[in-house]
Design goal:
Elements: H1 2-8, E1 16-17, H2 19-25, H3 31-39, E2 46-48, E3 51-55, H4 56-65
Antiparallel strand pairs: 1-3, 2-3
Length: 67
């Protein structure tokens, strides 16, 4: 089922998205909430230098498992 979500959700985004794209994917949430989700590791990400790199799968997992 999770693979099906991956193929259907956000198909127009790359496999690894940046901070701005993540905010868009989550309905244009604010920067404060977006940083909180990343800093508290609620959405797992990788930090490269000063930039967050977020695997699309982690965003889908957050959306589908967050009740």
């Amino acid at each position: 089922m999770e693979n099906n979500n991956y193929n259907l959700m956000f198909s127009n985004y790359p496999d690894v998205v940046n901070f701005r794209q993540m905010k868009e994917m989550l309905g244009n949430i604010g920067s404060t909430l977006a940083y909180k989700l990343l800093r508290k590791n609620i959405i797992k990400s990788i930090k490269v230098g000063r930039a967050y790199k977020i695997p699309k799968n982690n965003i889908i997992e957050y959306l589908t498992n967050n009740n």
